[in-house]
Amino acid sequence: MLGYKKYLTAPGQKFPYQVYDRLTLKASAKRASAIVVSSKGEYEDAIEFGIHKKKLHLIPMGVDIPETANRQEEENAPLKILFVGRVARVRRVELILQAVKKLSLPFTVTIVGGEEKTSSLTKSGYLDELKKCCADLGIADRVVFTGPKLPKDLPAFYNDADVFVYPSLYENFSQPILEAGSYGIPIIATKVGIAPEIIEDGESGFLVSGDPEVLAQKLERLGNSSERKEMGRKIQEKVRKKFAWSQIMDQYMELYNSF
Fold this sequence. Notes:
This protein is an alpha/beta fold. It has ten helices and eight strands.
């Protein structure tokens, strides 16, 4: 809730959030004995909002660790690029499309998620804009929009992907990044949500700005399957060590028992 100041710019967009802040959130924060935030960015937002550091506890979301990541790569296959999440303007999915147009290697892009239409973040019609963008760039035959999928359907997409890309403008946490990491997929993401805390730039993925040219360069580099596998191994190891639900619940129990 606190991040709206970073991406709502049109007149009047912030007003409902500001009313909520004053009437509900501030009062709730004042009464709370402890407040849990899920990322360093969310922690900084809470400090800026006026919540005392002593009340804040950084405990990330967890992820169900797949028992086996059944990922198989085919020789000479196109680079399979994946995005999972609500298709909203704040996610800047168009940057993926602009970047892949610049690639010299063969590729496919799969966009998994439904269009966000209810938030003031976005107007309806963004999905149509993305499809038009594909047509204008001449890549429509290599981009698939699956629409919304149930959680039980996601493993098939993660297992099939070579690279996960998430160029969002702002996130509180960004659960799909964590999910992709748990499957051993190297990740290219902007410095939002949990991304800076799990991606070691150049080691287990890449942290980028909103520049399609830079994004394309990183995708070209991940066309190397051996480097891709090594990066995937590193990020999977980190996610499994620090973000399994059993470990996250231990942190919550420790906090609960401290009162």
